[in-house]
Amino acid sequence: MHRGDNPQPGASIAAAIRQAWPDAFIVGLVYNAFESGVYAAGGPDVCHAMPYPTAGLGPYLTRLAEVRAATPFDWFIPTLDAEIAMLAGASEELAELGIGVRLPDPAVLARCGKAQLPVLAEHCEVATPATAVARDVGEALEHAEAAGYPVFLKGPFYDAVLVHNPAGLAAAGAAILADWGPPLLVQEPLLGTEFNLMGLGDGKGGLLGSCALRKLIVSDKGKGNGSVVVRDLRLDEITRRVMAATHWSGPFELEFIRDQRDDCYRLIEINPRFPAWVGFPAQLGANFPAAWVEWMLQRPVRPLPQPAPGRFFLRHQIEVSGDMGQISALLDALPNSTNHDLTSNSISA
User: Fold this and answer.
1) Cα 189 from chain centroid?
2) Most CB contacts within 10 A, which of 172, 242, 248, 312?
């Protein structure tokens, strides 16, 4: 639910669902009492604190069952890569809890992970940066020495650090391993323009909709703080090949760099979820979260319209307000506490 300088998708998903169904009852799940989307206008009706996925599937499902017993809900939209990696094989357990979810098959998720992306890209005849997989910092140093500095060092879920020498790689590698564990990925840096494509895979090799953006403003964390809608048949063809190869079911985001050396799109990541900018096309008539809900209701889902090229978004700062009682209730419900009080989203924004 975070909406700061490195936003998470949850708040935008809630806003898009509110756009389609103003009276929808939305439950927010948070890991931090200071996630600003909790207190933003149009946010969730109630929020619950959750254990981090690193706690394991058992504690996560136990807490999810407690949340559903306290504030019943029908469907669950995971929004973070680490959640999806943990839950991908737990569809039956979630169904036993009465929770509907749309998750990629674990084998498909593994094929689309950062470590396996070069293999999938080769199968789909899609270009991707040269990437080496390392189990530890020592192996990463060997790969970087062979490739030549600078290189990007990436974690299995998050973080991408441009390092220029062995000392920088060792420091970045230790930090990434501490946060996310192995493997480390050593990837060639590319010069070019960054693009993102969001889609909703139908699980049969096709698409329920897609929207592509070119980044205009990139933050120091590599996030698109400003982007414009584009249409390029080459992006559509790459997406078609990936969908045909994976039969992806549910939301996804493809990240590209258009290499300035040869004007070729190189696929750098596949994210198994809605991106943080999912609320932008909803404002233009392409409401992906609403289509997801219709799909879960087993209603016919018409292909989503593609927003017109040239429409853009810019992220900007606002202040949200709330009551300290809300934060206290969430803090009490975070791990190492037995108090699972709720916090209502009654705010002035």
Assistant:
1) 22
2) 248
